[in-house]
Specification:
about 25% helix; eight-stranded mixed beta sheet; Rossmann fold; disordered N terminus; Alpha-Beta Plaits
């Protein structure tokens, strides 16, 4: 009898030995989970992970029949035992927190298209030790004042969304902060007044775009001193954010771009590239905005002089990625160099040439946010104004180069508001000048020349070929198939692309998108088609009460660390 009990005990012990710890023989679909996330879940299945879950596109044709994909993604998370957080309709999914075991189970759901890691992002700046030597934001070296006087443009009426750490009130921005919303809060609401900038980074960026020099007698200004700023806060006071938070900011811009005339978005942030842009949810979001007519500027990254260091989403081919120039604090260009910290191409995984252009980004003087993290940590970088106000601050990084180009785009759009993002990119690259001694992968097309670019603007239509991300393509297929003839505009080289591919023969491999007529697309239908909750705002949607919303992932562990 005791032998039988011993056998049963041994069998039970062997059976229980697999409980807890690593998952050895569990069913999951590895093709539907981010590889790095999958490795973590297998190594520690009991731990919780912040993720973005994308649901399978509903192929039903009518709007009434299509389900909301974000809500469906959240429902699948709940079924697996996880906690959905926010609808991310711009990528057809939802943010969530779930255990490694639940994540693996979720991958088997036929309703789930992919599970992404909710990657952490950081602002891309580099405070320099000799900040006191800084005297100007480099406008003379890129001929910005010449563009103002010769073409009478200041960016008047153009909305530039600064997706960053917030924008503080400042005399140099006056009443041109026309809207502000804070996605680091549990229940963000739009304010017509500035909401502040606890980090200090976003205010500096906004000043490089649109500061008008009020506090300096006109000596320190941005490139587009007449442009409006839309403050979309996604970065916490320590310089950190998550993909899902950035996505929430971008989808808010998509829904509100007409209200605030948002024509330009500046993203001075980035994360290491761990996969092709075709599999990156943030790439999907910036492409949706691009094809909706919004020009996206992204800092290239501060990872140094080695190739393959461009960060996400600067690695997406449809955005305008900006590298940083050290202009040696002179108006002359012969002493210009590409800053040592500025990231280089080709891009990892996709081998694309990046950055697209370069602009001054070292020792840049712009607006100060008093009491912010940066202001407190680096008081020696303060620069006094002439009016006793908050004054200015000095920072370096591709974070500073991107808004210089964002301001340039605002000037271009004031001169010709009909310009499409592809036209803008082509004009910027065509007008750029070479930074002597540096490769294409270091400088892109070269130093932006504001006057030459603005002066070159015509009314011709220009499109550049490129492959959209897989996620974007999946969404667009059913819209192409079901759209009226406005989609089949034959006014450009006979149809959808320049290679005479007929609509009947389109696949995502042979379409180059260079002549699609994007302006007439109903973009709200693309990502918001199934929602009928008229009494609730998207920013407040959770599967529990707003008061119980878990935003722990927003606190971050990054800091405003020096790079040189």
């Amino acid at each position: 009898m005791w032998k039988r009990w011993l056998s049963l005990t041994l069998i039970l012990a062997i059976t229980l030995s697999g409980v807890g710890g690593r998952v050895e023989a569990r069913s999951y679909d590895e093709s539907k989970v981010d590889p790095g996330l999958l490795r973590q879940a297998l190594a520690d299945p009991e731990a919780d992970y912040d993720v973005i879950v994308r649901s399978v596109p509903d192929q039903k044709k009518t709007k009434a029949q299509r389900d909301d994909r974000g809500r469906r993604a959240g429902d699948e998370v709940q079924k697996a035992g996880g906690k959905p957080k926010h609808v991310l309709g711009i990528v057809g999914g939802a943010s969530a927190t779930l255990s490694g075991k639940a994540l693996l189970d979720l991958s088997n759901s036929s309703a789930v298209d992919y599970v992404f890691a909710d990657v952490k992002f950081t602002a891309q700046w580099d405070p320099v030790a000799d900040a006191a030597n800084a005297t100007s934001p480099g406008l003379l070296s890129i001929n910005a004042p010449q563009a103002w006087t010769q073409y009478n443009v200041t960016g008047r009426g153009i909305g530039v969304a600064v997706v960053d750490s917030g924008v503080a009130a400042h005399p140099d921005l006056g009443d041109r902060i026309v809207a502000a919303i804070d996605f680091t809060q549990a229940a963000p609401t739009v304010s017509a007044s500035p909401l502040g900038d606890p980090g200090g980074h976003g205010t500096h960026v906004a000043g490089l775009v649109a500061g008008d020099g009020t506090s300096s007698g006109g000596a320190i200004t941005g490139v587009a001193p007449g442009a409006n700023i839309i403050d979309v806060r996604v970065i916490d006071a320590n310089g950190s954010s998550n993909t899902s938070v950035v996505l929430r900011g971008l989808q808010w811009i998509l829904r509100n771009k007409s209200t605030y005339n948002v024509k330009v978005v500046n993203l001075s942030l980035g994360a290491p590239v761990t996969k092709s842009y075709k599999l990156d949810p943030l790439a999907t979001a910036v492409e949706v905005l691009t094809f909706a007519g919004v020009t996206i500027l992204v800092s290239a990254g501060n990872s140094g002089s080695a190739g393959g260091t461009i960060t996400s989403p600067a690695n997406d081919p449809f955005v305008i990625s900006v590298g940083a120039i050290d202009d040696a604090q002179t108006a002359a260009t012969l002493d210009d160099t590409i800053a040592s910290f500025s990231s280089r191409g080709r891009t990892a995984y996709d081998s694309l040439t990046k950055p697209d252009v370069s602009a001054p980004g070292r020792r840049m003087v712009s607006l100060r946010s008093p009491g912010s993290t940066l202001d407190t940590q680096y008081p020696e970088r303060r620069v006094d104004g002439t009016d006793g106000g908050p004054g200015y601050f000095t920072l370096s990084g591709t974070s500073m180069a991107a808004p210089v180009v964002a301001g340039t785009v605002a000037l271009m759009l004031e001169r010709n508001p009909t310009l499409a993002p592809n036209q803008i990119k082509k004009r910027l690259k065509s007008g750029a000048s070479d930074v002597s001694g540096f490769s294409l992968q270091a400088q892109g097309a070269g130093r932006v020349d504001v006057a030459a670019t603005v002066g070159s603007i015509g009314t011709d239509r220009e499109y550049g070929a490129g492959r959209v991300s897989d996620s974007f393509a999946k969404d667009m297929r059913r819209f192409i198939e079901g759209q009226p003839l406005v989609w089949k505009d034959l006014g450009y080289n006979g149809g959808v692309d320049s290679h005479n591919v007929t609509w009947e023969g389109i696949t995502w491999e042979n379409i180059t998108w260079d002549n699609v007529t994007w302006e007439n697309i109903s973009w709200e239908n693309l990502t918001w088609e199934g929602i009928t909750w008229e009494n609730i705002t998207w920013e407040g949607i959770t599967w529990e009460s707003v008061d119980d919303l878990n935003i722990g992932a927003l606190s971050g562990t990054s800091s405003w660390a020096k790079l040189d």
